Amino acid sequence: MASVASAVPQISLQGVQKTYPNGTVALRDVTLEIPKQDFVFLVGPSGAGKSTLVRLLIREEKATAGTIHIEGQDLSRLKRRHLPYLRRKIGMVFQDFKLLPNLTVFQNVAFALRVTEGALRHLKPKVEEVLSIVGLEGKENKYPDQLSGGEQQRVAIARALVHDPRIFLADEPTGNLDPATSWEIIQLLLQINARGTTVMMATHNREIVDVMRRRVVAIEGGQIVRDEDAGGYHAPALESH
Amino acid sequence: MHRLWNRIDFAFSSAWQNFWRNAAVSIASVLIVWVVLLALGSLLLVLHSLDQIVALEKTKASAISVYLADTTPLSSAMDFKLRLESDPRVTGVVYVSKDQAMARFRQLPALDPSVIDTLGTNPLPASLDVTVKDIRDLAAIDQEVRSSPLVDKSPATNYEPNVIDKIILLARVAGIAGLVLIVGLTGLSVFIIMLTIRTAIYLRRKEIEVMKLVGATDWFVRWPFIVEGLIVGMVGAVVAVLIVGFGYRPAVVNLQSVLIFVPLAFDPYYLRLVLAAMLGFGLLLGSMGSYLGVRRFLKQ
Question: How far apart are CA A123 and CA A111, in angstroms?
Fold first, then answer.
């Protein structure tokens, strides 16, 4: 039985449907399994349901039908008071960084530890550690508006790493960045993935997806239309037809 | 211990920041709390004084003083006393001479003795203080003694059947009016504190978003706002407590000099109760306001 348990995927969606209160069907019958340490691109046009999928994984939204398991835990049965502990397992970054403008780089990262009552005695070394992973040593006392977009996203990534997450979700992390900076962020995500963290990145960035040749899950109209290892942004089938 | 301290430190420093970040709204809510508590404290003290007066009047109720004309010889007065004592309705009669009356008068609080000395002659009449078994007989005895030639005519007795009823009515009216005022102000102050907390939450919406994202618990997010409400209640209460605490004694002393015959007294024990009640009520207002402010917003 133990071997069966270890074969359970880290993230598993079975027949997931999401209908918003206004009647919009954002996802229909989505089944997806992501094993530990996978690196997955989630692609598709705007409004296809990528962001909804991400929001379901951190239980910002609840699925209307179907089940979602993260590390064997059924999210529909997760009590509200246990939700924060799910979020601590999942590092999360966004297109708009979501940094606090009145806090320095150091304080922005430390904030995540303070508000979750993390190991405060180790706060400073921990913050320094994640800042060095993202390559921001020496910028600790800068404010977000003194940083470039790429540096701001690095701060957000550092903040997402303070709890040593087992899953890293990035929703359009390069959406506001120029191509060179986008590549730096991708390198960073690869590095995080290499450290053993599952990474899922929703993106529009065709060039990156095509060059990387990683697993690609394509969503259109709320359904998974393609799921291939070492895929590109568009399906190869389109040309062969 | 470390975590608890972090939680307290975070809650208090955030709450303090919130308070000053929207200072105008915070100060408005402090003011309204202050007004409520001032009204509450004053009402309690006024009602307590009226209670004291009623209690004192009740002990006096079974007795009347029959004032004797200055021309009445002592022997006639003693005859009159014997006649009254033989009345089955009467339980006791005490003769109070002019000098004794004066001595009593001098003992009234807040009366300047030099004022009395300037009077020269003693204007107070001698009296027979009659105690009865049944208060209801007082009116009949009052009527009978008024016809006696020995009795002073202005005034004949100190019989005032309505005084207690009047004071009780006054206390009731003051109590109801005060209660209505305080209930109204309480509702208003809870509402204003709620708005203050909502404003603070709005100003912190980005931080709250990040806190939830990185996995802060609901209570960790709520505490700073609850504490802010408590600070509002506390500050309003402390100012009101200081004013009532230091103002009560001077107020009683001043009133005593105006209302010489009203037995007002300074009651430090009751004052302490009132001040504690004000502080407690202030904190209650603050926590109710912040609870309502936080309740809906942080649900999702």
Answer: 10
Instruction: Locate the chain B residue with the closest alpha carbon to A115.
Output: B216
Alpha-carbon gap: B214 to the closest alpha carbon of chain A (Å): 6
The angle at the Cα of A38, spanning A220 to A52, to the nearest 5 degrees, equals 35
Q: Please give the helix or strand (H or E) that residue A33 lies within, else none.
A: strand A25-34
Residue type for position B31: L
- Subunit contact A87:B212, Cβ cutoff 8 A: yes
Residues 151-170 of A with CB under 8 A from B: 159-160, 162-163
- The distance of A218 to chain B (nearest Cα, Å) reads 26
ipTM of the complex: 0.88
| Calpha distance B16→A68 (Å, rounded) | 41
Q: Tokens for A200, please give them.
A: 């899922």
Q: Is B1 on the interface with A (CB under 8 A)?
A: no
Contact flag A98-B220 (C-beta cutoff 8 Å): no
* Cα B217 to Cα A80, A207, B200, distances in angstroms: 9, 39, 19
Cβ pair B214:A112 closer than 8 A: yes
pLDDT above 80 for B87: yes
Contact call for B6 and A117, based on CB within 8 A = yes
B143 pLDDT band, cuts 50/70/90, is confident
Helices (H), A134-223: 149-161, 179-194, 206-212
How far does the CA of residue A88 sit from the closest CA of chain B (Å)? 5
pLDDT classification of A4: cutoffs 50, 70, 90:
very low
CA–CA separation, A159 vs B239, rounded Å?
43
pTM (two decimals) = 0.75
Residue B94: how many CA atoms within 13 Å on its side-chain side?
9
Instruction: Encode pLDDT of A39-53 as tens digits.
Output: 999 999 888 889 999
Q: Is B277 helix (H, G, I), strand (E, B) or coil?
A: helix
